[in-house]
Structure formats: C-alpha cells, structure tokens
Amino acid sequence: MKKILICYFSGTGNTKKVVEKACQSLQGMNCEVKLHNIDDGEFKENLNEFDMLGIAYPVHAFNAPSNVIKFTKSLNKLENKKSAKKPLFIIKTSGEPLALNNISSVKIKSILKKKGFILNNEYHYCMPYNIIFRHTDNMAYKMWNTAEKVIPIDCKEIVDGKKSKLKYVPFGRLLAWIFRIEHWGGRVNGKRYKVNDKCISCQLCVKRCPTHNITIEDGEFKFGKNCLMCMRCSFHCPKNAIKIGWFEKWKVNGAYNFGIPNEVEEEKHKRYCKKAYKKYFAKNQKKIEDFEKSNKKESC
Length: 300
Ligand SMILES: Cc1cc2nc3c(=O)[nH]c(=O)nc-3n(C[C@H](O)[C@H](O)[C@H](O)COP(=O)(O)O)c2cc1C
Known about the structure:
Layout: E1 3-8, H1 14-28, E2 32-37, E3 52-58, H2 66-74, E4 86-94, H3 106-114, E5 117-126, H4 137-160, H5 172-179, H6 181-190, E6 194-195, H7 204-208, E7 214-217, E8 220-223, H8 232-235, E9 242-243, H9 270-276, H10 278-299
Helix pairs in contact: 1-4, 2-3, 4-10
Residues 10-15, 58-62, 93-96, 98, 101, 127, 129-131, 229-231 line the site of flavin mononucleotide.
C-alpha cells in the first residue's frame, strides 16, 4: 500500500474539488492518502514516512500562489536525500488551457528537487475562472465533467509509476520569474480592496481569508498588505460587497454550479470559449476513450 501526502491550496474551491476527487481515486487504488490544506497553518507531517508527495494549487499569473511557494520552501529535506529521490506529482487548476500555465511549477519543482523529490507526474485541469470573466454554468459543467473522468486515469499513472510531464514553453523559467510580479502586485492591490454598503457584516471574508489579511477596526473593514489575490473573499461574498481594487471589472462573484445546467444562459464569451478550449476538451476526450478501450481489452 502506497502512502501519499497531498498538500494543496485552493482560493475559491476549484483545486480543492480536484484534489478531493484525486484523493478518492487514489484511495480506490488501495493507497493511503493524507491531505494537508496549506491554509491550515502548522504542518506536522514527517515527509520521510510517505512514498510520494503531491502539491496542488491554482495557477496565478502563470505561477503558483506565493503561499504555496513559501510552503514548499518551509518543508524539511528528506533524510536519505542523496540515495533515492522520492516521487513528486503536481496538480494545477487554471481558467485557461494555455501552455504558458505549465511554467507555473518551475519554482516548486526546483525547490523540492533540492529537498530530495523528483517530479514524475504533472497534471493540469481547466476549471472555471474565479477572476477575469464568469464562465457559464454549461462551461463549468463541461470542465468538471472532463476533470472528473480524467483524474482517475491520471491517478492510475501516478500509482503505476508511469511518468507524465507537461511541456514548458521556451524561456519558461525566465517568464515565470517575470510574471511573479503578480505576487507583489497582489499585495499592493489587496490594500485597495473596499467593502461597500451592501455589506451585511457576516464577516465570512474575515473568517476565511487564508492570510488573515482582513480585520475590523472601529467597525470598519481593513485590508492589509498580505493579500494573495486568491479571490476567496470577493468570490464567496454573499452580497457581492467587496470591491477588488484595480481588477473590479474582472471580478467573479458566486460559486459555480457544477451540475448539468437547467436553462440555456446567454454566453458572452461563446466564440472565444469554443475556440480556446476546443483542443483541451478533444485531447481529454481521446484520453478517456483510449482508457476505456484498453480497460475493455483487458477484461476480455
Ligand atoms: C490572481 C489570479 C491569477 C490567475 N491567473 C491565471 C493564469 O495565469 N492562467 C489561468 O489560466 N488562470 C488563472 N487564474 C484562474 C484560476 O487559476 C482558476 O480559476 C483556478 O481554477 C482557481 O482555483 P481555486 O478555486 O482553487 O482558487 C487566476 C486566478 C487568480 C485569482
């Protein structure tokens, strides 16, 4: 029985949904899986006790969020680092199937290599945007429906020790470094967040912020300098009362319904979505069909 640890961060729930499905699939393959939510603070696990490590995160400006990078830096080196490297797998979710998103793991990969881990598997799942524009319920359903079917196939590869990596675009390391300006930009922009008069003071944002960046002083909401731009506060605000600074026009509010939509919605980005995600859906559909075929052959 393989012992697997998956450490994840999820701003608005997409990555968590994917990780939970992966956990369920791995357990179905007779693995013992432990999940660690990076938000939960203190990390008490002993990495030497696990056969594999998984890291999962949402892509933020073609990078991993800063708290995920910080977390990987804080991990201890493996005891037998020099003798055998332990397998690492990375799971990322993003709003777009852009190849540029693949570079988001370069930093984590190199940090963990120094600690004794070797990246063997890397997977990317499109999940609906939590910033920029709201995907339709139909698109969200299609994305989840695809991920839900592909995750068990990918998990089987992980367990079987079959390597699978994503291709990095040329100059990926440099590009990722440049785009990490978002980590700084997020902190600056985070201080510009404001609560408007629709606020009912439920304080969900205060309670849920992963960096405890939102406080109430003299009855007023204060946004500090540790914003991750994860969108949890504004995305889940029940009254859509949080203004997100320079990115207000890109704000997405309200959880997605991942089920089969009841009614046909107006699709503002129909043409773009049809074109941009075509390859992603086709590639994954083929993967699902190939897997089903090989399963049928085996059972014959
Ligand atoms: C600050 C920020 C930056 C983002 N940057 C990208 C990006 O570079 N590429 C992309 O495809 N999606 C990007 N997204 C979209 C998220 O990666 C995507 O919606 C993800 O599934 C959210 O996962 P979560 O719910 O676990 O936070 C970004 C989202 C945020 C909030």
